[in-house]
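We emphasize that the prediction below concerns an isolated chain of 404 residues; any contacts that depend on oligomerization or on bound cofactors are therefore not represented. The input was used exactly as deposited, without trimming of termini.
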Amino acid sequence: MVNVRFVENVGISVMVKHQSNVAIPHPLDLVGKAVGSVGRRLRLSGMRRKPGAAPGIEHHDLSRMPGTGEKVYITCIDYSPKQVQRRDIESGQFDAFLAEHRPDWCRVRWINIDGLTDMRVIEAMARKYDLHPLAIEDLLHFPQRPKVDAYGGDGEHQARLFIITHMLQMTGGTLNSEQISIFLGHNTVLTFQVTHGDIWDPIRERIGKDGSRLRENDASFLVYALLDAVVDYCFPILEQYGERLEDLEEHILNHPDQRIIHQVHTVRRELLLLRREVWPMREMVQQLQREPHECMSENTRTYLRDVYDHTVQIIDFIETCREMAVGLAETYMTAMSNRMNEVMKVLTIIATIFIPITFLAGVYGMNFKYFPELDWKYGYFIFWGLCIGIAVGLLWYFRRKRWL
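Result of the prediction step, given as a C-alpha cell string:
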C-alpha cells in the first residue's frame, strides 16, 4: 500500500519574540511528520502570525532564532561555458566562503543549502544576497503554496525572483513532498531545501559536461532546468499510480472484497493531494513564462513553455487517474450488488423449494388421533417421494424460466 507523507505543521515548541512582538517559530517545529492518514487535514496553526504584527522576518531577527545543531549541507557550483567548479562547503569554511567574490570567469553561481536548522547560515545568506524579509518568512514557514514573487529592483533591494515549488519523490512506496525555495538573481541561484537529498543530480552532471546548453546560458536557464526536473519527476510517480489502478481493477473484476475498496479510496485521496501539489505549479510556471522580469531571459521564457505543457499533461493524467478511481469504486459497488443478488437468488430458490416440503411436514406432524395416511404400509416412502418430486419439479421449472 502506498502511504503519502506530506509536510505539515505540527505546532510550536520554541518561541522567541523580537521588538515587533512577532512570535518567530523555530523552523524544525514547522517540519511536518509523516501523516498516518492521507486524509488528515493539515494543521496550519504554526504558520499564523500574531494579529497586527509586522510582516516578514528581518535579517537581525534570524540571529535570535535558536538552532538545533543539525548538519547543514552547502554546495556551490560556479560555471561558465569553458569552466566549472564544484565545492562542498563545510561549516568551518562558510564564513570564508561568503567573504570571497565570485571568480571573474564565473557566469553563474548556484548555491544549494540542504537543511534549515542553522539560523547563522540563513542570516549570512540573507545579508549577503539581500533577501527580502517576506521571502525569508515564506522560506522558514512551510508548507507554502507554489508561487513566484518578484522583489527588489527599486534601489532598496537587489532585483530577485523568489520561487516556491514542491519536489515530489516516491521512495519505498511512500510519496514525499518537500518544499523548495529558489532565489534567482542576475548571476546567482540560491536553492533552499528542508532535507538532504534531491532529484537534481542529472542537472549537476549536465553542468559538468562541456558544451551543454546549461553551460551556455544564464542563471535563469538553470532555474528552468531545476523546475523542469521537478515537474518531469511527476511522470514516473503517476505511472506507478496508473499501474496500481490497473491491478485494483483486475482484482475488483475477479475477486472483489472489502480490502480492495479501501485501497481504491486510499488512491483517490492520494491523487487528490497530488493534484493539490501540482495544480499551483502550473500557475507558477505560467506566471514565469508570461510576466517579464530583468532576471528572466527571453530564451528561458521560451523554454518554460515546455514546462507549462508538462504541468498540463500531469494535471490531465491526474484527473484521468481520479476518474479511474471513481469508476473502480462504482465497479466495486456494482460487483458487490450483483454478488448480493446472486446470493439472494440462491437463498430464495432454496426457500421456495422448502416451503411446500415444510407444509407437508407440518401437516403430517400434527397430533391428530385419526390420520388415514398414517395406517398406510408405504406412507413413509410416499411422503419422501412426494417431497423429492416437488423439489425436482421446482428446480426444473426454475431452469425452464432461466432463473438458474
